[in-house]
Design goal:
By secondary structure, the protein is α/β, with parallel strands linked by helices. The chain has a single domain, classed as Aldolase class I (TIM Barrel, Alpha-Beta Barrel). Bound molecules: pyridoxal-5'-phosphate (PLP) and iron/sulfur cluster.
């Protein structure tokens, strides 16, 4: 179990069902073998070219910048990802950067992980500098949970580093419940927005955490109050050990519909599923019609 103190402080003491606690607390239920839940639910290992560069999305390359995170989310779809087999930093990054440089079809790099902001400013600056040198790259995207779980990481210096490039830069954070966005997270998000960075949020639909329309509405409103727009609401990737978080497709679709009725369009996240081998997220309704996979 790994959870920053500041995030733990947002939990209600003594409540075993606290929605923040539930995201980080290991339960015996993780050990159950459940049909359909596997170690690589989204086909990352087959998309990974061996250097932590995933090219499964058109025009975008996803670089696993580091395996480290500040928090261990129990439902993480990469909870079994073989980070250790990625090898050592410098060589691996050089190969990944060379692959990006030789493919002019890539216009956006997504720094992912783990959490790319676990890298210190110097290493991040070096990495971004090397991406800068690749002329066909136009956009830089950072997928990070740190503004939420470790807001102190979002320093003025980091914001200047992220803002001081020729890239159009997007930060995609990850919050699942409005209680995650306390005053410190709000201030961190304001610093990012103050640096002219676009900030979107992705959430995972999680039983016992945010599987209620009131919670999801409150999340959308809280995000907007922090200057962030909702982007994706992911149906859970069926990763081994996370079956106790599953919400059925039928309930997920119902929640999506209620959200559309209750919120302005810009606060309604896209309810999607990742299907292995497909290069984009699929709207859940379409995926269910296709009979892709059911929860
Ligand atoms: C879907 C996904 C992406 C690509 O995101 P888009 O916003 O659809 O381009 C990148 N990283 C992860 C972890 C994803 O699930
Ligand atoms: S922060 Fe993201 S990558 Fe890290 S454990 Fe949580 S869901 Fe997984």
């Amino acid at each position: 179990m790994l959870v920053p103190r500041g995030f733990a402080a947002l939990m209600t003491p003594g409540d075993p069902c606290d929605p923040l606690l539930r995201q980080v607390l290991p339960l015996r239920a993780e050990r159950l073998t459940v049909a359909g839940f596997s170690r690589d639910p989204v086909g990352d290992t087959s998309a990974d070219l061996g250097h932590g560069l995933l090219r499964k999305y058109a025009g975008r390359a996803l670089l696993i910048a580091t395996g480290g995170c500040a928090v261990h989310c129990r439902y993480c779809f990469r909870r079994h990802f073989p980070y250790a087999s990625l090898g050592l930093g410098a060589d691996r990054t050089a190969v990944a950067l060379a692959l990006i440089a030789e493919d002019p079809g890539i216009s956006e790099v997504i720094l992912s992980g783990g959490d790319p902001l676990m890298l210190d400013d110097d290493r991040l600056e070096e990495l971004i500098g090397r991406l800068h040198a690749i002329p066909h790259l136009k956009r830089l995207r950072i997928h990070t949970r740190l503004p939420v779980v470790l807001p102190s990481r979002i320093t003025g210096a980091l914001c200047r580093l992220l803002a001081g490039t020729r890239f159009a830069t997007l930060v995609v954070i990850h919050a699942n419940h409005p209680h995650e966005l306390g005053t410190q997270a709000e201030n961190a998000l304001r610093r990012l927005r103050g640096a002219d960075l676009a900030v979107l949020n992705q959430s995972v639909l999680l039983r016992g955490v945010n599987d209620a329309v009131d919670t999801l509405c409150a999340l959308g409103e809280r995000l907007f109050a922090c200057g962030v727009l909702p982007y994706y609401l992911h149906q859970l990737d069926p990763v081994e050990g996370a079956a106790h978080f599953a919400v059925s497709d039928a309930q997920a679709l119902q929640l999506g519909e209620e959200l559309r009725h209750r919120l302005p369009g810009y606060l309604v996240p896209r309810l999607v599923r990742e299907v292995p081998g497909i290069g984009s997220k699929i709207p859940l309704a379409e995926s269910v019609r296709n009979g892709d996979r059911f929860l």
